[in-house]
Write a structure and sequence with these properties.
200 residues; alpha+beta; Protein Transport Mog1p, Chain A; 3 helices; DUF1795 domain-containing protein; signal
Length: 200
């Protein structure tokens, strides 16, 4: 994956909370790969999406990112990356860190893609958790090569901070703009089960 979207998946626009120098790709991850501290399970497949990579961003393996892809007619048509990483559990620090994480991820997108156009910014309920758990959401349209197909790409970010859990969950999604596969992305997000200690 050498194009701009692949770089976005692996690089700045998909920054986790961890430092880049500590990251490692998990070779031949089990099915499911389990985030040990939370019990968050990442199966090899979720619906029609196949797990593409598991990255651990710190030596402890508490800061992780797992990417999935959807293939149709021999081409990748959607990418979703999910991140789980530590966060302060006391109210004041928790709220501040959640905002910092969200703002930092937005900045990474706009710095990587200076032509990014803001489509909407709102609050979204967690896809597979307590409906009262809302997260920050922003959607952009960027111009990039989506696996050798140049054009407009819908790029979205979701950040959730389950109260007093000590963890954050972040989603990054990418599809060709106007794609009929947007619904598949939402189904993926709803099908990936959250552990009970994060509100699932």
């Amino acid at each position: 994956m050498t194009n701009k979207i692949a770089a976005m998946v692996a690089g700045l626009a998909l920054l986790s909370a961890g430092m880049a120098h500590a990251q490692r790709k998990v070779e031949s991850p089990p099915d499911p790969y389990v985030h040990g501290e939370t019990g968050f399970n990442f199966p090899a497949a979720v619906g029609s999406f196949a797990r593409q990579a598991v990255i651990e961003y710190n030596e402890e393996g508490t800061d992780v990112g797992v990417s999935y892809e959807l293939i149709a007619d021999g081409s990748i048509v959607a990418l979703v990356s999910v991140y789980v990483y530590p966060s302060p559990s006391d109210d004041g620090a928790e709220d501040a860190q959640c905002r910092t994480s969200y703002d930092g991820a937005k900045q990474a997108i706009t710095e990587r893609f200076p032509d990014a156009k803001l489509v909407r910014e709102d609050s979204r309920p967690a896809p597979d958790a307590d409906a009262r758990l809302a997260g920050d959401h922003v959607a952009y349209t960027i111009t990039a090569d989506f696996f050798s197909r140049q054009g407009a790409v819908a790029s979205e970010l979701y950040v959730y901070c389950p109260p007093k859990s000590g963890w954050q969950v972040k989603y990054r999604t990418s599809t060709p703009a106007g794609s009929e596969h947007d619904d598949a992305v939402q189904r993926f997000m709803g099908a990936l089960e959250w552990p009970e200690n994060l509100g699932g």
